[in-house]
Amino acid sequence: MITGILMFSMAFLMIRFLDEMSLIQQKAEVTQLARHYILRMETTGGLLEADRADLENRLAQMGVTEYDLSGTTFGTAGYGSRIVLQIRGKLGGRYVFEEKRVSTAKN
Fold it and tell me: Does 3.30.2010 match the CATH number of domain 2-104?
């Protein structure tokens, strides 16, 4: 009886561990995506409309829900101006995250 309870507990813990690891992997992917887009924003001076649509599409494909880009520099900023990429959302439908990148325009 005790062995059965221990086996069940270990299986439950393993499933929870794998679930948490997938969330960490998703967050790492969002971090890489933010890095990609802030580098792109440096050359264009901000997040252009086509890039915004592509970013939103890729976030949705990653499973990010309730994402919000408020605080992000849209349009075109002049050379040396501060640009910001700020992504907020939920992973797994319940874990809130925020990814913020700040740089300067080099266009």
Answer: no
